Amino acid sequence: MIASALLPAAIPSPPESLAKFSIGPLTIHAYALCILLGIIAAIWLTLRRWKARGGQSDVIWDVAIWAIPFGIIGGRLYHVISSPDAYFGPGFDGTGDPIKILYIWNGGLGIWGAIALGALGAWIGTRRAGVRLSAFADAAAPGVLLAQAIGRWGNWFNQELFGSATTLPWGLRIDPNSPNFPAGYPADTLFQPTFLYESLWSLAGVAVLLLVDRRFKLRFGALVWLYVVIYTAGRTWIEAMRIDEAQMITISGITARLNVWTSLIVFVLALLIFIFCLLRSRRMRDEDFMHLPGRAPAGEASEGDAEDSGRQAKDDEEPVAVAAEASSAEAGSTETVSTGASERPAPAAEPAPAAPAGGASEEESPYPTADDVAPEEADKPSEERKQD
Asked: How much is the pTM?
C-alpha cells in the first residue's frame, strides 16, 4: 500500500514533440540522441579505464572509428533479419518497404549484431594500433554496458519494445494512437516497461563490472565475457516479457522468441569462455596484456609491465640487501677482533739468557777478538793502525 501510494499510477510516454523535433530543415530524433549519448558515455568511460591501465589515449579513437560504424551496421542488419516483416512483408510476400531499412532513427538495432560486427571493427582497429583485442574489450566492457543502459531510453521515446499488460503502479502507458499500440487491448492498458528494466539491469551490471575489476583485475578477455554473462542473464527474462512481433523458434517443443534462445545459448557459451579466460590469465599473468608481441611503444610500460618490473626490482634488491648485510656483519666482526687485539696487553718479553761466568764461551775461538786488542791500540786513530 505504501509503495503504491509513493509510486506514480503509471509511467507516461513522451509526447510526439519530444520524440522528434526540427531545427530548421534538420529533424532531430530523440532515439538517435540517446544512441549518441550512449556512445559518448562509452568512449568517456573506456578512455578513463584505458589510460588508468597505462594505455595511450589515441588508441581509443583509432579503434572507435572502426568499431562504432561496424556496430551500428551490424545492429541494424540483425534487426532486419530477426524482424523482416516490416521490410519485406509477412513471409517475404513483397508487401514490405525495404527502403525503411535505412530509417535507423525509427528504432531497430539488434544488440547481438552490434556486438558481433562491432567486435570485428574493434579487431581491425586494435590490430592497426598494435594492442590486444582482449585488452581493449576488457577496458570497454563497462562502457558498452553503460551505452546500452542509456540507449534503451530511445525505446521509451519511440513507444516501442514494451512488455505484456500489467496492473503494476509503474506500468507504461502507450498512446492508443501510436502505430506500436497492440491491437485488441483497451486504450487505458498499461504495459511492462521492459526498456526501464533493461536500463536498470545494465546500470547494475556496470557497477558489478567496475567493482569486480577493481578487486580482481581481470585480464585477457575475462572481464568482457563476464559482461556478456551479466547482460544475457538479464536479457533472457526481460526479452521473454515483450509482446512485439518477433521471429519465434521452437526447440524441444518449447517455442520462444529468437532473442530468448540467443540469450540462453550465448549465456552458456560466455560462462564457459569466462572460466577459460580466468584460467588462461593465471598462466599469462607475467605477459604484457596490453600490446601485441613486439608492438609495445618504446619507453612505455603497461600496468602489467609495471607490476612485473616492480616484482623484478624487488627480487633483484633482495640478494643485494643480503650481501650488504653480510658485508656489514663481517666488517663489524673484523672491527671487534681488531679492537680486542689492540686492547689486549702485549705479552711480557722473556729475559735474555745470562752470559756464562768469566765472559768465556764453552769453546774458545782461535781468532783474536775485540777484547784481545790492547786498550792503547784501540785508542789510536784508524789511520795509524793502517800504517802499523
From this structure: 0.72
Measured CA to CA, the distance from residue 211 to residue 205 in angstroms comes to: 10
Contact between residue 145 and residue 199 where contact means Cβ atoms under 8 Å apart: no
| Position 337 in a domain | no
Contacts of 88 (CB under 8 A, 6+ apart): 94, 96, 98
* CA proximity to 136, closest of 230, 49, 226, 266: 49
Domain count along the chain: 1
**Torsion of the alpha carbons at 134, 137, 139 and 142, rounded to the nearest 10:** -140
pLDDT at residue 144 is higher than 50: yes
Place of cell 567486435: 119
Residue 175 included in any domain: yes
* pLDDT tens figures, 69-98: 999 999 999 888 888 888 888 878 778 888
Can you tell me the distance from the alpha carbon of 79 to that of 107, in angstroms, rounded to the nearest whole number?
9
17 inside domain: no
Host domain of residue 184: 24-294
Record the cell numbers describing residue 290, joined without a space: 596490453
pLDDT in tens, 370-383: 555 445 554 555 44
In a domain, 319, yes or no: no
Task: Provide the Cα torsion 73, 76, 81, 87; round to 10°.
Answer: -120
